[in-house]
Design goal:
single chain; Nucleoside Triphosphate Pyrophosphohydrolase; 7-stranded mixed sheet; 3 helices
Length: about 140
């Protein structure tokens, strides 16, 4: 399967885990609130990509069975996958920011969708999921 990357909307209890992107002018959306995920490495599957990136970025070791919803969409760099996982709120105790990003926080998912610093296409896909899930 050809794809360029994957993102994960990770709910810890009712809240969404978001990462403030580094404030570097050479990256897309510097300083914006991002979701765990990133580019594909080698021959990994979309699920493996999202799970690896989540572990690297926030230290949470989830499994493929933790992914409850997905969709793919087209971006300029190719197909990207968007996954959702709902985990218990107390998993927040295990969150540890990796080497990318300024900080992380929990955010109401609807507030994320309205936030001026949410990565626009991730907010759009999250809105679609929230409608689908009746949230």
């Amino acid at each position: 399967m050809e794809f360029s990357g994957a993102k994960l909307a990770l709910f810890l209890g009712p809240d969404l885990l978001v990462i403030k992107r580094d404030n570097k002018p050479d990256i897309p959306y510097p300083g914006y609130w991002d979701l765990p995920g990133g580019g594909r490495e080698g021959c990994e599957s979309p699920q493996d990509c999202a799970l690896r990136e989540t572990f690297e970025e926030v230290g949470l070791d989830l499994s493929e069975t933790d992914l409850s919803w997905s969709e793919s969409y087209q971006r300029a760099r190719g197909t990207v996958w968007f996954f959702v996982s709902h985990q218990p709120a107390d998993l927040v105790r295990r969150v540890a920011l990796g080497s990318e990003g300024q900080c992380w926080r929990l955010m109401d998912p609807h507030a994320y969708c309205r936030d001026a610093l949410a990565v626009p296409h991730f907010a759009e896909h999250l809105r679609g999921y929230l409608r689908h899930a009746g949230l």
